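Researcher: Let's walk through a ligand-bound prediction step by step. First, I give you the protein sequence. Second, the SMILES string for copper (II) ion. Third, you return the three-dimensional complex as structure tokens. Ready?
Model: Ready.
Researcher: Here are steps one and two:
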Amino acid sequence: MRARILSAAAVTATAVSIAVVAAGGSQAAGTTTVAVKDFAFSPKTVTVRRGSTVTFIWKGKAQHDVTVISGPTRFHSPTMASGRWSTKRLTRKGTYRIECSIHSMVMRMTLKVR
Ligand SMILES: [Cu+2]
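Model: Step three, the predicted complex:
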């Protein structure tokens, strides 16, 4: 009886950890979202599978952009104060260093494609 209770707890724990991964949006192929706040990207590090896209969602009031400063390919968004912008499908593996070019001292993030 005790073993059955423990195993139910283990199943619950597994379900919770899957939900956490989904909320973090760090692993699944498909679309991952990143918040563009005043003045930080959130999360600061994102890992996606090759072929995924990343959608940036503006949450603050200031103008920001999304600019790759180093990585396998370069891309950048328009400068925006609201709305969302998505990358194309990320087909090249590697580490992309991203910043908001307006607030590059503080707004930086790392996108890993693997
Ligand atoms: Cu900015």
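Researcher: And what stands out?
Model: The CA atoms of residues 34 and 56 lie 5 Å apart. Helices lie at 2-24.
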